[in-house]
Give the backbone structure.
Amino acid sequence: MSDTLVVGKHLGRDFQRGVVALRDVNCRIASDARIAVVGPSGSGKTTLLHILGGLDKPTSGTVEWPGLGPFEELRPRHIGLVFQTPSLFPALTVAQNVGLPLVLAGDPASAGAAAAALLDLFGLGELRDKLPEELSGGQSQRIAMARALVMRPKLILADEPTGQLDSITAQFFFDTVMEQLEGTGIALVVATHDEAVAARMATRWTMDHGRLVSEWPRQDAA
């Protein structure tokens, strides 16, 4: 399956004090996938994204990245991450935060222009010289998505990227994201409570008490 980017088999994740975040989850992400991960708070959505992105290790089961290469090169080169909590570096300006993945990947010469272009696309160009402490939560979310896009990775994992946006801003923001991904082959997996976002994704994973209880349309996760 050459188009398979990530495969999770029988994933389980236990934390201290008997908290079970994931239970026997099987899933697959293909190139160009559009996946919404839905379910109530505490159902395991964030934990699943962290494991698929290589930020956390499962307690049981395995995760592999056949279409992304060695684990050491996953981030920021091949996986872009958007966290639910603030993740911008406080000492860097907005433009520097967005361009940081290119700097880390050894291409600092492209960072400034690429960051400026994405900030303009998202209507955030006037914020380029501000520090994260000067931003609203919604602005920080959009800037984090621009940072995830700047490397043109093969996969973007986004956790509640519209959670702090009003409906009109969220629609414009997500329209821009989808337009940027069109025809690129980049896969997008979004954990969300926003039904308007989930409805635009081709595939829906429904989580409940750590289990992937339904997947529509059904895919072969093995």
